[in-house]
Every structure is written in structure tokens, then in C-alpha cells.
């Protein structure tokens, strides 16, 4: 069984998740904690639940998703930080983003590569990596098929999609990956995005206005 605790961190309201299995093996997902108060909330949960951190999983490298990575990794003995290798481009451009948004520059950290089909094991949980670039060049989602949970980062939101106007973004690539990699998943799959409320695949198939090209009537699409 999967357990998930959600936090909303920094001025960009970025979601950080702590995910663990029945034995307490846990992963930190996109830890954007930007100050001691936010950092302490994560640590308090780990201590309260008696969790055993095993890794950090990054959906992409934008600064608001990684502000706490270096400190969390160091605190727990050098946790591996999983990220797609292409998103080193994003890490290298965080100085640009930090300057644009007046945000702190994240501390540097080492990463462990994951690509399409890689499996990140968190105790009994198995997260399959789906390459979904478009928001960034190396964006990924993490799918736990047995639990029907998709961590979508900034690829897919409730009623929206990730923006693609920053360096490394590509709208056409983003849309193609959403249609080819995500929308065919089981409709009951819970979608946990990097910002905003949770949703599910069925709801996004039926109602997400960004996934209805040209707003064509349904009957016209059948011809």
C-alpha cells in the first residue's frame, strides 16, 4: 500500500511529496523547501512516522522543485537524486530563472540518471519512469502502476498543462507526450501534479480544455 503526504512550499506553491510503503521506506519528490521552517516540516514527518528515506525523485530541474534537494540528500547520508540526464540543461539555466523571478539559487547536487522505463524502487513500491519532455527538455513522470498513482510534475495539471515558453520548453513535444504517454493510462490513475489540486486521468481526458485540439465538437472528431 502506498502512503503519501503532501506539502506546499515556496512562493510558487510547489508540491513536495513524501511517499512511503508499509515498511516505512520513503522517497522525497520535488523537495522545493526554501527555508528552515519548510525543511523542518519534512523532517518532522520522517521522525514522527519513523520513515527510512531511500532517495529523492525529481520530475524536472526547475529551481522551485529542487531548493531542498542538496540539504535533504546530505542529511540522510547522501541520498541518490534521480533525474533525467537531459535536465542538466535545466539545472544549468536555474541562474536565469532565479534572476527572472527574484528567487534563491538552489545549491548544487549530484544526480543519478533515469530514463524511459527505468524503475525506482522505494521499498515495495516500484515507480516506472515515463519520459515526458516539453515543459523542460528532460521532464519525467513517475508511475506506480499497481497503486494507480502518477506523479506528473509540471507536465499535466488539473485542467491545464505545463507551460512551454521557458528555455528548453516545446509545446508540440509536450502535447504529444501527454497524449502518447499519459492519457492511455487507466482512467482511475490518480494524478499528482507539481502545483494545484490532484486529479485523475479520466477527468483530464474528458474535461481538460488544453487537451481538446481546436475545440472541435465531439461528433466532428468521429468523421
Provide a quick synopsis of the model.
Helix content is 26%, strand content 27%. By secondary structure, the protein is of the alpha/beta class.
Output the number of helix runs: 7
Biggest sheet strand order reads 1-2-3-4-5-6
C-alpha Rg (nearest Å): 17 Å
**How many DSSP E strands?**
14
CATH architectural type: 4-Layer Sandwich
Count of domain modules: 1
Q: Find the CATH superfamily.
A: Ribonuclease Z/Hydroxyacylglutathione hydrolase-like
Structure, explained:
This protein is α/β, with parallel strands linked by helices and 223 residues long. 26% of the residues lie in helices and 27% in strands. The protein contains seven helices and 14 strands. The strands form three sheets. A six-stranded mixed beta sheet has the order 1-2-3-4-5-6, with helices on one face. A six-stranded mixed beta sheet has the order 7-8-9-10-13-14. A two-stranded antiparallel ribbon has the order 11-12. The chain is globular, with a radius of gyration of 17 Å.
Amino acid at each position: 500500500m502506498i502512503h503519501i503526504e503532501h506539502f506546499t512550499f515556496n512562493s510558487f506553491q510547489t508540491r513536495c511529496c513524501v511517499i512511503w510503503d508499509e515498511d516505512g521506506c520513503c522517497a522525497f519528490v520535488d523537495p522545493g523547501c526554501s527555508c528552515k521552517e519548510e525543511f523542518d516540516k519534512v523532517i518532522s514527518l520522517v521522525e514522527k512516522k519513523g520513515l527510512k528515506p531511500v532517495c529523492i525523485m525529481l520530475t524536472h530541474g526547475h529551481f522551485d522543485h529542487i531548493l531542498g534537494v542538496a540539504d535533504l540528500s546530505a542529511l540522510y547520508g547522501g541520498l541518490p537524486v534521480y533525474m533525467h540526464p537531459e535536465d542538466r540543461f535545466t539545472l544549468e539555466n536555474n541562474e536565469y530563472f532565479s534572476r527572472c523571478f527574484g528567487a534563491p539559487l538552489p545549491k548544487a547536487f549530484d544526480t543519478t540518471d533515469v530514463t524511459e522505463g527505468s524503475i525506482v524502487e522505494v521499498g515495495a513500491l516500484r515507480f516506472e519512469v515515463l519520459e515526458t519532455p516539453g515543459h523542460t527538455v528532460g521532464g519525467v513522470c513517475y508511475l506506480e502502476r499497481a497503486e494507480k498513482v502518477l506523479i506528473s510534475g509540471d507536465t499535466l495539471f488539473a485542467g491545464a498543462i505545463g507551460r512551454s515558453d521557458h528555455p528548453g520548453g516545446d509545446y508540440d513535444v509536450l502535447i504529444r507526450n501527454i497524449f502518447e504517454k499519459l492519457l492511455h493510462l487507466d482512467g482511475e490513475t490518480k494524478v499528482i501534479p507539481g502545483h494545484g489540486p490532484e486529479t485523475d486521468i479520466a477527468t483530464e481526458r474528458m474535461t481538460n480544455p488544453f487537451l481538446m485540439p481546436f475545440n472541435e465538437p465531439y461528433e466532428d472528431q468521429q468523421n
